Amino acid sequence: MLFGREHVERYQETDGAEGHDWQGTTTLLLTTVGRKSGQKRTTPLIYRRKGDDAYTVIASKGGADEPPLWFTNLQANAEVEVQVLGDRFAARARTATPEEKPELWKAMAETWPAFDDYQKKTEREIPVVVLERV
């Protein structure tokens, strides 16, 4: 099973032929710029499409009380890079609005039911992030 750095490398090397399909779901690669380091960081994340030009991901960190670093990075700089299979593109990240979050969360939890468990583990409201192609 691919995970972490190996997941990112195999995904990039094979245009997602290895790494896109993962444990019964699908992943994309999200590249953010470190808010302190200025270095690019790439993370594989479970996703769902949102319309024609957007994708949703969840900033769960497995239900930890602090958000994942990629989320704090995009709060400082919403300009990101996304790779879905062989498609690489620039995107702008935003947190889903309170009005759209319930529907997006439900769709993501259908894709990866553990998201509901992660929310129960923390008092932090886990954000849904929308990645919109620019």
From TrEMBL:
<dbReference type="GO" id="GO:0070967">
    <property type="term" value="F:coenzyme F420 binding"/>
</dbReference>
<dbReference type="InterPro" id="IPR004378">
    <property type="entry name" value="F420H2_quin_Rdtase"/>
</dbReference>
<dbReference type="Pfam" id="PF04075">
    <property type="entry name" value="F420H2_quin_red"/>
</dbReference>
<feature type="region of interest" description="Disordered">
    <location>
        <begin position="1"/>
        <end position="23"/>
    </location>
</feature>
<dbReference type="InterPro" id="IPR012349">
    <property type="entry name" value="Split_barrel_FMN-bd"/>
</dbReference>
<feature type="compositionally biased region" description="Basic and acidic residues">
    <location>
        <begin position="1"/>
        <end position="21"/>
    </location>
</feature>
<dbReference type="GO" id="GO:0005886">
    <property type="term" value="C:plasma membrane"/>
</dbReference>
<protein>
    <submittedName>
        <fullName>Nitroreductase</fullName>
    </submittedName>
</protein>
<dbReference type="GO" id="GO:0016491">
    <property type="term" value="F:oxidoreductase activity"/>
</dbReference>
<comment type="similarity">
    <text>Belongs to the F420H(2)-dependent quinone reductase family.</text>
</comment>
